Amino acid sequence: MVSSHVSPSPRSGPAEPGGPVEPVGPVGPGGPDGRDSRPNTVFRQLRGARSPAEFAAAVRRAAREIGEQVSCDARYIGRVESGEIRCPNYAYERVFRHMFPGREPEDMGFVPREVVRGRGARAEHRTEQRTELRIEQPKESDVLRRAFMTGGTAAAVAAASLSTAVPAASAPRGPRRAGEAEASAVEQAVRRIRLLDDRHGADGLYRRATRPLRIAYELLDADTRRRSVAERLQGGAGELSLSVGWLAHDSGRFADARSHYAEALATARVAGDAALEAHAFCNTAFLARDAGRPREAVRAAQAAQGAAKGLASARLMSLLSLREAGGWAGLGDRAACEAALLRARTLFGRGPGDADPEWMSFFGEAELEGLEAQCRSALGDWARAAEHARRAVGLQDAHFARNTALFTAQLAGDLARGGAPDAAAAAGERTLDLLTEVRSTRIRTMLAGTARLLGRHGGVPSVAGFLERHAAERRAGA
């Protein structure tokens, strides 16, 4: 991703996801609030040396990384910088927050959203809809926005509302009919879960996410007049099953995760959806590795590569090769692991492409380094594992807070096993800092293992400090 980290503010909270298009557009002396439009010089500085067209391309790439759809071009950038667009709609706001972590819209030169609300502002919104040519959101989008609202206790608030994410199928009786709105609601639910998981981890989200999943599968039995809608519902339900399965996986519920992944695979097979099948096998391979079934991990990863052959995505094949490498590492087959790692790096080097699946927004150079670190660790190469884990932490985008915590925990464990207790304790402390915002049983389990390894070094002051803090936080969370 092309990201501009320009003097970010100390805040790093999540964006407010979802929502209707907000009022934007030209405002002069006769505008709804009587204010003149003023050039947005702050946003112009964020663009830096890039041309408006180059910056627009960076915005579109960033949108794809988080599963958003925006029709950004040089003209849109010009309208923002001139002050014509004083407040971005929710989709653009999420993208800009992703590009400039820690910045609020006001920190990017935008006017607070409440300033542009009201009857006159809605008229501007209609003008903007006609000129911007962006993809429309369904009527349910406002419900989805509220369902995935994040705030001070972001994960808890979001989890409490997940059950309303797919409201269209909630009628208990009578004939049901599913259309574009229902398909879009399911797709939006998938995106919201992924965004929340990236920032906060799975704990606290899983139980609430199962209800929209059940409703999504109920929609598969609804009457649909268009084949395209039926296909979107099948794909959306399958992807939602994988997302909910991942929440189970990351929160240590392996049996539940296996069931959800199997359900997604069955959906893929029924629909003849190769992309969904590859994704299901990919997750199955990952789960098998974590559950101590490395041979199954290898077979599932190879099956995923077979399903993905016709998808023309080098990045997907790179990730699937890494999943295979993880299985070989678990089996202790160094030669096969090295071959799969080399193949993964070669494929990754071909760069991103238009055929890359939306769900792979997390897979960048940081993930490549982090997954190799895990392989090296499984093979007992502690020094090389720590080197790759350190790179993964340094390269990770701030949006992916859960992965930053994961790779920092990986680094702590590798340093502890490699005989560097001071450095391991420091990495452990950083992980504890990150876990104030991220809730992941998987990461906490890793950190607990590191604490056990460091127990023999309790006489070292830095190690003792980490162990005391870790023990206190475990007691507090008990």
Describe this structure in words.
This protein is an all-alpha fold. The chain folds into 3 domains: 1-137, no CATH class; 138-272; 388-478. It is built from 21 helices and no strands. The chain has helices spanning 41-47, 52-65, 74-82, 90-99, 119-132, 141-147, 154-161, 180-200, 206-219, 227-250, 254-271, 274-290, 294-308, 314-331, 334-348, 365-378, 382-395, 401-417, 421-434, 441-454, 461-477. The longest helix has 24 residues, at 227-250. The radius of gyration is 23 Å and the shape is globular. The two termini are 39 Å apart. This is Tetratricopeptide repeat protein.
Question: How many β-strand runs?
Answer: 0
In total, the number of domains comes to 3
Question: Can you count the helices?
Answer: 21
Low-confidence stretches: 1-35, 117-165, 167-175
What is the CA-CA span between the terminal residues?
Answer: 39 Å
Approximately how much beta-strand content do the residues carry? under 5%
- What is the H/E string? HHHHHHHHHHHHHHHHHHHHH
Largest sheet: none
How would you summarize what this structure contains?
It contains 21 helices and no strands. The protein is mainly α. This is Tetratricopeptide repeat protein.
Which terms summarize this structure?
globular; mainly alpha; 21 helices; TPR-like_helical_dom_sf; 478 residues; 63% helix; Tetratricopeptide repeat protein
